Amino acid sequence: MTVRIAVTCGTNFGGGGLGQHLKLVVEKEDRANPGQVTCYCYTGNGDRRCIEIKETSNVWRQAGKIARYSPGWRSYLACDRFDTLTARDLRKFDRVVGFVGQCDKTLKTARRLGASHLVVHAVNSHVDNVRHLHALARKSTSIESPWLNAAQATKTRSEYQIADEIVVASEYTRQTFLERGFKPESLSRIWLVPNERFKPCDSVSTHSTFNVVYVGSITVAKGVPVLLEAFANLPDPDYRLTLVGGYTSPGMRKYVTERLARDSRITLAPGDPLPHLMLADAYVHPSWEDGWAYAAAEALACGVPAIVTEDTGMKELIDEGVNGYVIPTGQWEPILDRLKSLASKPLRGFTPPQYHKEVY
Q1: Is the dihedral of CA 240, 310, 314, 121 positive or negative?
Q2: Which residues, in sequence order, are bridge partners of residue 239?
Q3: What does the alpha-carbon distance between residue 35 and residue 308 come to, in Å, rounded to a whole number?
Q4: Are 135 and 62 in contact (CB under 8 A)?
Q5: Which runs of consecutive H residues, i.e. helices, occur in 97-149?
Q6: Which end of the chain has fewer CB atoms at under 10 Å, N or C?
Q7: Cα(13)–Cα(18) distance, rounded to whole angstroms?
């Protein structure tokens, strides 16, 4: 029996963490039903399975500019617009797979068109857990508001309710759903794998500095202020910190710019993280919440020990004291302690994590 499948996600196919997640989902669905998968995304990067969703409304672009000072409304408007455009173009499929926060209208349209199975990929932990942790992050500093606002949370809960299946990427995320009354049989697991280009460097790099790397959005929710506070308490001039990512708010830009001006050891370097990971002695992922955290997994794949928080899904890849450390969320002192430990006793030569294939 032929099963027609649509996978939708407002990102670029294969680009960045979310794009890599999307690519893995499409390939998984295509293996099960060869030639029957259609992917709705922003940029297909030449993949024949992709239909590119294009924005044509100047009014919507103007609305996005108005919301540029609010990460929450900017995120909501972007996700809702992709959802609206995809729902408009959607054809009849048997199985429709969406990504959380951006598929409510699409799933409802799919059901109306006769889809028999609706799937939501929960990129983050349960939305109520995210809201709780973001509130703690906002309480710790007033630099910027979170990317998840009340409107986006309401939309996400609606997606949970309409879905026949919710796919999680970590045991951490799975537990947050179970704690909120979801039945185990409604949850399944996908194992996310870093791109194969992330691998240990063939040559041994020699440098006199201790290089620390962070990869991701430069935001409060990702814990960047926590990391910078820890680094400020490392007086040794031989430490270096590279932030690989971009700002999402004027407040964060101002905060980080001031930090960089005070400490020449810190560098902002948007772009490809791989060259920085090749020179890294430690990777720090201080996020207040991440359903998985591709960047930290990519660091481990490169043979770089990682320091991650308890609210990061890929913490299950950490073998304590062998390839990294798991630390309390929102505290800079443990980051400081672990960096000092890695500087005095490097964790090198470990085998990159092996990824399981079983599902719940």
Answers
A1: negative
A2: 210
A3: 39
A4: no
A5: 104-112, 127-140
A6: N
A7: 8
Distance separating alpha carbons of residues 14 and 18, to the nearest angstrom:
8
In whole numbers, what is the pLDDT of the chain averaged over residues?
92
CA–CA separation, 53 and 7 (whole Å): 13
Residue 111 has pLDDT above 90, yes or no: yes
Pairing status of strand 95-99 against strand 5-8 = parallel
| Token output for 230 | 């820890």
Tens digit of each residue's pLDDT (9 = 90 or more) over 155-199: 999 999 999 999 999 999 999 999 999 999 999 999 998 988 999
- Give the pLDDT score at 1: 74
Average pLDDT over residues 110-135: 97
pLDDT in tens, 43-101: 999 999 999 998 766 655 665 565 566 888 989 999 999 999 999 999 999 999 999 99
What strand order describes the sheet that includes 239-244? 266-268, 239-244, 210-215, 282-285, 306-309, 324-327
Q: What is the DSSP string of 261-326?
A: HH-TTEEE--S-SHHHHHT-SEEEE--S-BSS-HHHHHHHHTT--EEEETTBGGGGG--BTTTEEE
Question: Could you tell me the pTM of the whole model?
Answer: 0.93
Going from the N-terminus, what domains does the chain have, and what CATH number goes with each? Answer: 5-189 (3.40.50), 210-344 (3.40.50.2000)
In this structure, the chain runs to a length of: 360
